[in-house]
C-alpha cells in the first residue's frame, strides 16, 4: 500500500485536483457513477476485475477514472492513471509491473487499438491483474467489440467484466454541471447566467469549463459577481 497518494509516472502525468466523485454531476449516468465508486472501494464486494466505461467526448470518462484514483489514494490504496493517448509512443513496456497496483486506470484505450505490441501487452496484463486480485478500470470511445481491437482475446476479456456506456448531458444537465463547478470555486452562478453561457459559448464540456475558469479569474480580479453583462464583457459575446 502507498502512503495515500497515487503513483505518478516521471512523464508529467498528473491527476486534476478537481476530478473527484463529488465534482462529477451524473445526470443520466448515476448508475455508472455508483458502479465506479464501488469499484474504487477496497472493501467492496465487486467480483469482476475489470470495469469498462465508454462514451463520446465530454461524458466524463477521464473525470471518473481520475476520481477513482483520488478516492482509492484517500484510503491508502495504490492507484495508477495512464492516459494512453499521451503514452502510446512510449511503448507497452510501461505496463510492466502494473499488476502490483490496487487499481490501474487506462484512459483512451482507442489510442493503442490496432497496435499488436500494445494489444498483446494489455492482454497479458489483464491476465496478471486477474490472477493477483487487482482491478482494471478502462475508458474508451466505444465498446470493447467496436473499438477496432485486432486481438479477439483482448476484446473478449475486456467485455467479461462490467461494461457501461456514458450518456451525454442535455442542456439542463450542463447547466447543473456549471453551477456545481462554480459553487466548488466559491462562485454563485444563477440559472439565468448559466443559461446565457450555454446559449452563447461553445457547447462542449471542455469549452464550458474553460469559460468558467476565465470567468472565475475575472471575478477574482475585479471582485465582481457573475452577471450576464459581466460575462458578456469578459467573454466578448
From TrEMBL:
InterPro entries: DnaA_dom, Hda, Hda_lid, P-loop_NTPase. GO terms for biological process: DNA replication initiation; negative regulation of DNA-templated DNA replication initiation. Residues 171-233 form the Hda lid domain. Residues 98-164 form the Chromosomal replication initiator protein DnaA ATPAse domain. It comes from the Bacteria. PANTHER family: CHROMOSOMAL REPLICATION INITIATOR PROTEIN DNAA, DNAA REGULATORY INACTIVATOR HDA. This is DnaA regulatory inactivator Hda.
Amino acid at each position: 500500500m502507498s502512503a495515500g497518494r497515487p503513483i505518478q509516472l516521471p512523464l508529467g502525468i498528473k491527476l486534476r485536483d478537481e476530478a473527484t466523485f463529488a465534482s462529477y454531476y451524473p445526470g443520466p449516468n448515476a448508475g455508472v457513477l455508483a458502479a465506479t465508486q464501488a469499484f474504487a472501494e477496497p472493501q467492496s464486494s465487486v467480483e469482476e476485475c475489470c470495469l469498462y466505461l465508454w462514451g463520446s467526448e465530454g461524458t466524463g470518462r477521464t473525470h471518473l477514472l481520475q476520481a477513482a484514483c483520488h478516492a482509492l489514494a484517500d484510503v491508502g490504496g495504490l492507484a495508477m492513471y495512464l492516459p494512453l493517448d499521451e503514452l502510446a509512443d512510449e511503448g507497452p513496456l510501461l505496463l510492466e509491473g502494473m499488476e502490483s497496483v490496487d487499481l490501474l486506470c487506462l484512459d483512451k484505450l482507442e489510442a493503442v487499438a490496432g497496435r499488436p505490441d500494445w494489444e498483446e501487452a494489455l492482454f497479458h496484463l489483464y491476465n496478471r491483474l486477474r490472477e493477483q486480485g487487482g482491478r482494471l478500470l478502462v475508458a474508451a470511445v466505444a465498446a470493447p467489440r467496436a473499438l477496432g481491437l485486432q486481438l479477439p482475446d483482448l476484446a473478449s476479456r475486456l467485455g467479461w467484466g462490467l461494461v457501461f456506456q456514458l450518456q451525454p448531458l442535455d442542456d439542463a444537465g450542463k447547466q447543473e454541471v456549471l453551477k456545481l463547478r462554480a459553487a466548488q470555486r466559491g462562485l454563485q452562478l444563477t440559472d439565468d447566467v448559466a443559461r446565457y453561457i450555454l446559449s452563447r459559448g461553445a457547447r462542449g464540456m471542455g469549452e464550458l469549463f474553460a469559460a468558467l475558469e476565465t470567468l472565475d479569474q475575472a471575478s477574482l480580479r475585479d471582485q465582481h459577481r457573475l452577471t450576464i453583462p459581466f460575462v458578456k464583457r469578459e467573454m466578448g459575446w
